[in-house]
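Z., the sequence and structure:
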Amino acid sequence: MVEFDPRLILAIFLQLISTSINYIGMTIQKKAATKIPKIGPDTGYRKSLKNLIINKAWVFGLGLNASSTFFAAGAFALASITIIQPLYGFGLIVLVIFIRFYLKEKINRLDIFGVLFGVIGIIVIGITARSLPEVSYTDMLDMFLDFRGIIFFAVFLSIALISYIVSEKTKKTTSLVFLVISSAIWTSTQNIFNKAVATAVRDAGFKGAFFGEAWLYTWSFVLLFLLVSIIGIIMLNIAYQQGHGVIILPIWTAMQVIIPVLSGIIVFREWQPATGYVGWEIAVQSVGIIIMLTSIVVLSISNGRKEEFSKTLSPVVDNGESTEVLKLNSKEDTLTQTELNNNN
């Protein structure tokens, strides 16, 4: 029987909070963005930035996203990334519940299947979750600089760059897929750098990590975290402007799990026999990760379809004003629209 370490339980709890806050923040930002003028050169980038900053809902959503990073950092400092990152899909389960009560949308069959798969995946992963020997910050630096770490980042960042180049030279649908792949790789690697910073703070404290002997490495990881985050977010927003959520979301969210988990296996060597895992535990963990990925893909497809359906009902002109607002589950809005049509 697996004995749970209180630190492991805390790490799982922190990750569940982090991913829940992250997805709620993203939903609030998306809803707020529909009520402001179109972001881009037509409005002006300075004006677009101002419109975002003065929108309280958008700023609140941004604050939730930023705060989720700190909860994730605490989780990464306490547990292995192969256990923590697959739980990223839990945020989509919370999102289904949040959208049901916040946006008054119905829960469909895909949502139900996705939630069930997610719950089963969390249980399966939890069965074999165990606290691994704590990796010191010094040892982690050695892992980053080891040939495995160098090859890992060289391969995936090369794929990200090549995918972006291919996206610029192919047709729209194919271009969108490669653009999302590139965005997902950049964004997912932020979790790896977040783990490095969190480990430094855990071992040396905040002052020691940022102003002690290893300050150069810590600040380097912070800069890398910001760099990949900004690049990934910009590409993701470009993808949203060019394509459909039903294509974007499944690819992007699945890779948020796959790449960090691979880094845990390849770079941090979390599945090596020396860590204490046996073959059957690794097999069960792998099944749990696959189940969580299934949940992520199903819920992402469902969410993407809802976004596309919402766009067909509420087209927005360039000045940000909605030309028509139709909410399927609101009798009051339906009556109001009918009255307006009769008056006209």
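Residues 315-340 have pLDDT under 50 and may be disordered. DSSP finds 13 helices and no strands in the chain.

Let me know what you think.
H.
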